[in-house]
TrEMBL record:
Keyword Ligase set for record: yes
Primary gene name: bioW
Name recorded for this polypeptide: 6-carboxyhexanoate--CoA ligase
Function: Catalyzes the transformation of pimelate into pimeloyl-CoA with concomitant hydrolysis of ATP to AMP.
InterPro entries xref list: BioW
A GO molecular function held by the record: 6-carboxyhexanoate-CoA ligase activity
Pathway(s): Metabolic intermediate metabolism; pimeloyl-CoA biosynthesis; pimeloyl-CoA from pimelate: step 1/1
């Protein structure tokens, strides 16, 4: 683990103006960095924003701020890859996995209608598992999970152990899913990318781990989704749940570390 003060570094990129001006979302990214590694973090996010398959942005914002809160260390979710032959089989599998964690088919069906309605938003939508209603009230912005990372050396050890490709896409998705599913109010997450060239998605939960599904949308489709299924009875204060997602600093730590928190 790096010593010294940490900073949250965030990037968002859009085309045809900023997001606030109705621009098309191109890319976003998150890193935690010490000041000595800030240039590397900023350059990595700059490269990500400029080389996305959704297009070349004409608006990009990269910002950082210091972290004053203790960073929570979390073990990564267990990972499993499910190879499927078609999108239909992949989506049927996602339904089955969500049912396994206690979400009814009626609620899942309702969630899939939200995907079409909100496929262009930047963040996640929160759905109550009891009512099937969207509860975050963030409109077209959604909830942006932030302040999270996985140090490369530790990630690469994990990837070698589980024979997982050492690519940033797997790393970033698992970091986010692990943070989200750590909260007791999260029942599951369903996600696939808005990248038209990437058709793999996942279902994640504390119970099932990180279940990658090789086909969850058709190649060339720019519609993506990120849905958090929330048990509101586990956390009656929705604001505190969103505060955790947006503000609690988290580093994924696999293997030798046993401590749960770091100052």
């Amino acid at each position: 683990m790096q010593e010294g003060k940490f900073y949250s570094v965030r990037m968002r990129a859009a085309k045809n103006g900023s997001h606030e001006q109705g621009g098309k979302h191109i890319s976003g990214g998150e890193k935690l960095s010490t000041l000595s590694h800030m240039k590397h973090a900023v350059n990595a996010l700059l490269e990500k924003g400029l080389t996305h398959s959704r297009g070349t942005p004409d608006f990009m914002q990269i910002q950082f701020d210091s972290l004053d809160e203790p960073i929570k260390l979390i073990k990564p979710l267990q990972i499993e890859t499910n190879e499927v032959e078609s999108v239909e089989i992949g989506q049927a599998l996602s339904w089955n996995l969500l049912e396994k964690v206690g979400i009814s088919r009626q609620i899942i069906e309702k969630a899939y209608t939200y995907m079409t309605q909100y496929s262009g938003i930047r963040g996640a939508i929160l759905i109550d598992i009891h009512l099937g209603e969207r509860i975050d009230y963030k409109n077209e912005k959604g909830v942006r999970v932030s302040r999270m990372d996985w140090m490369n050396t530790n990630f690469e050890k994990w990837a070698d152990y589980y024979k997982v490709p050492k690519n940033s896409r797997v790393k970033e998705a698992l970091v986010l899913a692990t943070k989200v599913c750590e909260h007791p109010a999260t029942v599951a997450e369903l996600c696939w990318s808005d990248d038209p060239e990437y058709i793999t998605g996942y279902v994640a939960s504390k119970k099932l781990g990180y279940q990658r599904i090789s086909k969850l949308k058709e190649y060339g489709d720019e519609r993506g989704c990120r849905i958090f299924f929330v048990d509101s009875s586990k956390d009656e204060d929705l604001n505190s749940y969103i505060q955790y997602l947006e503000k609690q600093p988290v580093i994924i730590q696999w293997g030798e570390e046993n401590d749960s928190r770091m100052d």
